[in-house]
C-alpha cells in the first residue's frame, strides 16, 4: 500500500512549496462532444467552427470551463484529496482560448496556511497555473480549501493569509488575440441582446431545469481526471450518496444561462465562487444571473459583463441570493462571480 | 425574465414566415463516437473509414440520423417549445453525406396553419432546410406539430394545409456523389442479403432489445441541442417522468435493425413518421421492419428499399402494426417510413 | 426472421474453420474521450500527446484495452452470442500501438472443440487476429468459451484441446517501435516508482472504488459494438438485471490500478484472464495487483512487469485471491494476468 497516494494532509503543506501535478492532458474534439452531451450548452462560438472563424477565432475554441475543469482536476490528488470543503476561488483568468490538440499541465504554489482553532484541520491557499504544450500560461487561479490534519498533535504552521483581489480588474482581463465581434451574427447566436441591453443590477431567470443523474456527473468528473472518492463511490459517505463535483454544477448553470445570456460567448475570468450546498442525483438544477458590472474593452465590438451566476435546487423565481439573516437562501447551490465577453 | 425565450405560440406563426434558427453546429468525430455509445449501431459504412472509402465515400460520413437530429434540434426553441405533440414528418431528403468538420444551420418556413376546433391550439406546418458551411442544402424536411395558443381568444388564422407527398418519389432521391457498391464487402458488412433478397411485403423481426435509461436519452438529446424541457426535467410533467425525445427511439430502432438489414447502409429519405406512444426509462425497445417498395438506381450497384421501421415496447413477434380497429397496436412506439440504399 | 443472426451454436463450429467478423471499426479521438469519461484512467501516455511524443510515440496511442475491446467485440456475434460463459483468455499480444484513424477488423480460427459430458453444450477455442487498415496484425489472442448446442442430439465432434502457453514468453513481447523511456517524466506521470521499485510477490491495494451504473456499462459495451443481449436488455435474464460485460471490469480495474502503478504505461500482453463472478449496477469495484515477474527489455529504459490484476466487489484490504479450499475468495470479480511496460 505504500505505493499508493494517500493525498497530502494539512501538515504536509508549506508556504512557498511548489507542486507539479500529474497527468498532462490533451484536449480533443471528443471532449467538446461529451461536454455537449453532458450539459445543455448552445453557445454558438464553441458549437460552430464557422461562427468562431467569423469572430476571428479559428480553430474553434472549446468552452473555457473544459480547460478549467481539466486544469483543476489535476490539483485534486495533491491538494484536496483529504479536503473537508472547497472554500473558494479567486483571481482566475483565462489567458488564451484552448483548442483540440492543446495539452494542459498544472503547477500549484502554496500561498497561505491557517490552522483551524479545533486543531484538526486547516485552510490551504494555493495559486495554480495551467500551461500549454509550449509552456505558455493558459489559465491561472487561486483557491482555498479546508484540509484534514493527519495528526491533530502536529504543530500549527505560522498563519499566512494571502491578499486576494475580490474582483479581477477589467484592465487585467485577457481578450483573445484576434477576437472581433463587429460582424457578429445575432441570428445564429440565438438572441438579440447585446452589451448595452444589460443593466447593472438586472436579474435574469434562466427558466429551464435539469434533473441530475449519477452516470452523467461521474462521466463528467472522470473526463476531468478528478479523483475525489466521494464523487464515485457509494461507500465513501455514510448516506451512500455520491456527492456531485461542484464543477458539474458550474457547467450546468453556465449552460442553462444560455436562455437569456446567449451572447455571453467567452468567460474571461472568475472572480469568486462558492459551492453553497451539496448536490446529488435527483436534484433539479435551475439558474439565474445578476449583472454586477459592465465595461467596454479595446477589442473591436467586445464588451465585458461581470455576472453573478446562481444555481439553485428547484426554481426560485424570486431570485433570492440571501435571506434577511444574510445567509444563503435555501436551495442555493452555487454563487459564481465571473467576467464574460459579449458583443457591444 | 424578458430576455429568455418563451417559445412561439400558435398565434405567433404566419404562413410564409421564415425563421433562422440559432446555434450552428459543427459535426465532429466525437459525435460519431457518442452515437456509437448511445445506440447499438454496427453499420460498416459510418463505422469504418476503410469500408467507406471502398464504396467511394471518403472521409467516412456520419450516420444520416446524426445530421437529422442536429438539424431538427435547432428548430425546437422556435417551433415546438410549446408543442402539445409532434404530429408527423414528410418529404425529408438527405442531399449529401455529412462528415466531421461540416457545420449545419437550419432555417424553417411556415407552410401551413390550422387552428383546432377547441380554439386552444393549432397545427403548424413548417418546411425546414439545413445548410452546410458552404450554404449548400444538406437535408430538408417538412413536419407538422400541434402548438398551444398563448391566448385562446386570439383570432384563428386562415386555414392553409400544404399538400405533402405521401412518399418521396424514387426519382427525387439523392444518391451521394461517388457512391459505388460494385466492390461491396459483404463479409465486412456482416450479412449476405442484398437488394434482390428482399421482397416487398416481407417483415423482419430484429430480435434484439434495449432497456432505456434516463442518462442515455438525456445525453443524446443534449448532443442535438434539443431544449424541450420534458426530456430533462422531472418537474415538467405531473408524473415526474422524463419523456424520451422521439428521435432517440428512431435512432435506437434504426440501430437495432442492423440485425436483418445490415446492408441498408444509407438513409436517403424519410417519407413519413409517427411517434405513436411516449417512451420512458425502463422501457425495453425492440424493432421490426417491413419492405414497402424496392427500386434500382442509376448509381453503380446501388438499389433503394422503402422500409417501414416499427419500434415497440416489448417484443412483438407477430409484428402487428394495427389492430382490427385500424388503430396502432399496443406497444407500438414509432412508425417510420423511409428510403435507404443497399447493394444490388 | 430468417435474415437475422441467431449466432452460432456448438455444432456450427469445426476445427480449422475461419470466420471473418463483421463491421470494421475506425478508432477516433471520440473513443479516447469516452474511455476517459467511463473509466477513471490517468495514465500519462494515452492522456497527453506531449508526453507520448516525449517517449517516442506520436501521435499518442489510445489505451490498448480500447483496441482489445473493439477487436473482441467483433467476435461476439459469431462466437459467443449463445455462450454460457466466457472461460478464459491466453496468448494475447499487442503488436503495435493504435492511434485515431486506424481501422480494425477481426478474423477468428477455431482451434479446439470439446463437448461437455452433459451433451447440451461444449467448449469452443478460437484464435482471433485483429488487423489494421494495412493488413498488419494489430493484436491477437486465444479464448475459449462455453457455447450452447442447438440440438442436444447432435453428435459430438472429435475433441481437440489446443496447447496454449500459460504465459507469453518475455521474448515474444512486442515493444512498440521507437519507445524510449530514458527521458521519462515521472512528475508528469504522477508517481516515482520505476521498474526496480517493484518486487516479485509484492501486492498493491489500489484503494479507490467506483460504484457501477447501467448507463455507463451499456455505453462502454456499445462503443465496442458488443451485441450480447444480457448486457442491454432487462428481459434477457430472469432476475431483470443487466449483466455487465466482463471487459468493463477489466478496464475499470486497470484504471483504478493507476494508484500505485501509474508508470505501467503500456499493456504488452495478456497471459490469462478469468471473469470469476458477474457484476451488476450498484456493485462497487475495487482492485489490487500482485507483481508476478519482472524482466528487462532491449528497448531503451523499458522494463516489463508481469502483473496479476484482481477486481473485487467491495474492498479487500487482505488482498486474498483464493480461500483455503483453493477457490476464488468471495467478492473476486476478475483475475487478469498481463505483461506491461514501465520505465527502468
What can you see in these coordinates?
- By secondary structure, chain A is an alpha+beta fold.
- Chain A folds into 2 domains: 1-27 and 62-164, Hotdog Thioesterase (Thiol Ester Dehydrase, Chain A), CATH 3.10.129.10; 167-344, Roll (Thiol Ester Dehydrase, Chain A).
- Chain A is 19% helix and 31% strand.
- Chain A has helices at residues 29-38, 44-47, 49-54, 64-73, 76-80, 186-189, 214-223, 246-256, 258-261; strands at residues 18-20, 25-26, 83-94, 103-115, 121-131, 137-148, 203-205, 210-211, 266-275, 284-296, 302-313, 332-343.
- In chain A, strands 1, 2, 3, 4, 5, 6, 7, 8, 9, 10, 11 and 12 form a 12-stranded antiparallel sheet that branches.
- In chain A, strand 5 (121-131) and strand 6 (137-148) form a beta hairpin.
- The model of chain A has no long low-confidence stretch (mean pLDDT 96).
- The A-B interface holds A 28-34, 36-40, 42-44, 47-51, 60, 187-191, 193, 197, 204-211, 213-216, 259-262, 282, 284, 314-315 and B 1, 3-5, 20, 22-26, 28-31, 33-34, 77, 100-101, 103, 105, 133, 213-216, 218-220, 222-223, 225, 227, 229, 232-236, 242.
- Chains A, B, C: InterPro entries: HotDog_dom_sf (IPR029069), MC_hydratase (IPR048274), MCH/BMMD (IPR052342), Thiol_ester_hydratase_Rv0216 (IPR016790).
- Chains A, B, C: This is MaoC family dehydratase.
Amino acid at each position: 500500500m505504500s505505493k499508493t497516494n494517500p493525498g497530502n494532509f494539512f501538515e504536509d503543506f508549506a508556504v512557498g512549496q511548489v507542486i507539479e501535478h500529474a497527468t498532462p492532458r490533451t484536449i480533443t474534439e471528443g471532449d467538446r462532444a461529451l461536454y455537449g452531451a453532458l450539459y445543455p450548452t448552445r453557445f454558438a462560438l464553441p458549437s460552430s467552427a464557422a461562427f468562431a472563424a467569423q469572430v476571428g477565432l479559428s480553430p474553434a475554441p472549446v468552452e473555457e470551463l473544459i480547460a478549467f475543469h481539466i486544469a483543476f482536476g489535476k490539483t485534486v490528488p495533491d491538494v484536496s484529496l483529504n479536503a473537508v470543503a472547497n472554500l473558494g476561488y479567486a483571481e482566475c483568468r483565462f489567458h488564451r482560448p484552448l483548442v483540440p490538440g492543446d495539452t494542459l499541465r498544472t503547477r500549484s504554489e502554496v500561498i497561505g496556511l491557517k490552522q483551524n482553532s479545533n486543531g484538526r484541520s486547516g485552510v490551504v491557499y494555493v495559486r495554480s497555473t495551467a500551461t500549454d504544450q509550449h509552456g505558455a500560461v493558459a489559465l491561472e487561479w487561486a483557491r482555498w480549501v479546508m484540509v484534514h490534519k493527519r495528526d491533530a498533535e502536529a504543530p500549527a504552521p505560522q498563519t499566512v493569509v494571502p491578499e486576494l483581489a475580490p474582483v479581477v480588474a477589467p484592465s487585467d482581463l485577457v481578450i483573445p488575440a484576434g477576437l472581433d465581434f463587429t460582424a457578429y451574427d445575432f441570428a445564429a447566436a440565438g438572441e438579440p441582446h447585446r452589451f448595452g441591453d444589460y443593466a447593472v443590477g438586472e436579474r435574469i431567470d434562466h427558466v429551464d431545469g435539469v434533473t441530475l443523474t449519477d452516470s452523467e456527473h461521474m462521466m463528467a468528473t472522470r473526463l476531468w481526471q478528478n479523483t475525489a472518492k466521494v464523487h464515485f463511490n457509494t461507500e465513501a459517505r455514510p448516506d451512500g450518496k455520491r456527492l456531485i463535483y461542484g464543477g458539474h454544477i458550474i457547467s450546468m448553470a453556465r449552460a442553462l444561462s444560455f436562455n437569456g445570456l446567449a451572447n455571453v460567448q467567452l468567460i474571461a475570468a472568475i472572480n469568486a465562487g462558492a459551492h453553497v450546498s451539496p448536490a446529488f442525483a435527483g436534484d433539479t438544477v435551475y439558474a439565474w444571473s445578476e449583472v454586477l458590472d459592465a465595461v467596454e474593452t479595446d477589442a473591436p465590438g467586445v464588451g465585458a459583463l461581470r455576472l453573478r451566476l446562481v444555481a439553485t435546487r428547484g426554481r426560485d423565481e424570486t431570485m433570492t441570493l440571501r435571506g434577511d439573516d444574510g445567509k444563503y437562501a435555501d436551495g442555493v447551490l452555487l454563487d459564481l462571480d465571473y467576467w464574460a465577453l459579449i458583443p457591444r
